Amino acid sequence: MLRKNIFRLPEASNAADADFFAFNTPSGSPARISRANLFKGAGLPTQIKYVSSKADFPAAVGGVITLVANTTYILTLPVNLTGDRIVMAASSSLEGLGLNRSVLSSTGLTGAIVTFTSSTQLTEMAFNIGANQVGARCLGTSVDVNLLCYQVAFITTAATAKGIELPSGSTMGVMLLDTVQTTGTGIGVDIGGAANSIACTNCGYGSATAIVTRSGSVINTRIRNSFVLVENSVFNFISGTTVPNESILFSNCAFSGTASITGINTPDKVKIQECTGPVSNNPSVGTMRMAGNTTATTIGTAGTYTKALGTTAGGTLNRYTHTPNNRLVYNGLQAGLQKVTVIASLTQAGGGNPVVSIGVAFNGTLQVDSTFDSTTDGSGRAEVISTAFITNVQQNGFFELFVTNKTNTSAVTVTQFTMIVEVL
Questions:
Q1: Other beta carbons less than 10 A from residue 360's beta carbon
Q2: Cβ pair 208, 236 in contact under 8 A
């Protein structure tokens, strides 16, 4: 931040020697700033403006205050624009000295307090947003437009108030919210246009609605919330929002009170991991089960594994699908290691004490490290065998239970089994 290029000299007996120096100047030479003038903005380089009242901004024309390009405006006190609004210029930014001290509002305004069409930075300040107002509205037209908010509070004092808005027809690249707070009865972030990605880290949502995506909105990459606190606030991803699979991510978030996720809250779109509170985690896991099966599996050659016959039922299916012929399919986007666990009960038709075995096939190929054996008896008693292994899985890969008789070709019946597959 530009104000960090202002340094105070050590205390000295001469008051003049205790002045400040600004090093970020157009000439490249340090500029002396007296203690008295520091917070008035006097003596500062032209690309830094300290603002303690509306008069310190450029004069409004037709209710519009247009900031100067390549200039940082630093709010030192609460400022009310009294019905006017700000339009950001190229490479201009708004900064503050803290959420309680630097508060921007505009009593009587209908619309956005701040509008930007190019990349914008808002830091260490608060917006007090009334009815039918928006704190910051993006009217960008390309993915080169980005928004960074760091330590910013959006206080929505009415149900029709919005903290940040990307309206229908507007386009932006990245919206990065770091240590951002939303409070009040309104909406924190309202997305109606198109954005590449929205990343929220260390944020606190206390507004009635945290984030809403409107029908017709487009998120090209993802919406990610990590290490976020959500209190009595709703994430509403309205049907008609276009997002890739697994692109709405919640990681290490704490939900409390009536906090919820609504709309297209399905495992193929929304991924919730290591979160606490009333919103359920939905890790990638799939299960299938067979019970009371009497269909025998014919063994053509002793020791050759073949797919177990019988009808299966799906269980928990988060990013997996199931077909009732003993197949579990992974539909998630994340390729990588998965853990497979199986427990099965087997009988064999012949006498003696043959060795029977189970194994798991992936995409029709037996996984060698998945096989496990047991010895049956001739009385028809079912033998229980379990196995577990880890394998590398791609999207649309499928798992099936295979069996064999290693001693002879007597048929084997899997009377029941459970298979659990989970992404690591």
A1: 25
A2: no
Spatial neighbors of 266 by CB under 8 A, at least 6 apart, are: none
Separation between Cα atoms, residue 292 and residue 253, nearest integer Å: 42
Q: Lowest-pLDDT range, 42-51, 233-242, 325-334, 393-402? A: 42-51
| Tokens describing residue 197 | 């990605």
Token digits of residue 129: 């947003």
What is the C-alpha to C-alpha distance for residues 328 and 397, in angstroms, rounded to an integer? Answer: 8
**What DSSP string runs through 154-181?**
EEE-STT-EEEEE-TT-EEEEEEEES-E
In this prediction, residue 121 has a pLDDT band, given cuts at 50, 70 and 90, of very high
Cβ neighbours of residue 338 closer than 8 Å, sequence gap 6 or more: 330, 390, 391, 392, 393, 421, 422, 423, 424
Tokens 């992974």 correspond to 330
pLDDT digits (tens, 9 = 90+) for 359-397: 999 999 999 999 999 887 666 678 899 999 999 888 889
- Written as one letter, the residue type at 27 is S
What residue type is assigned to position 225 of the chain?
Answer: N
Domain ranges of the chain: 1-44, 47-273, 285-423
Retrieve residue 80's tokens: 């009310």
Within its chain, how far is the Cα of 46 from the centroid?
A: 39
The alpha carbon of 369 is separated from its chain's Cα centroid by a whole number of angstroms, namely: 36
Topology, domain 285-423: Jelly Rolls (2.60.120)
**Could you give the CA distance from residue 384 to residue 343 in angstroms, rounded to a whole number?**
7
Residue (of 306, 331, 325) closest to 406 by Cα position: 306
- What pTM value is reported for the model? 0.73
Angle at 168 between CA 224 and CA 255, to 5 degrees: 30
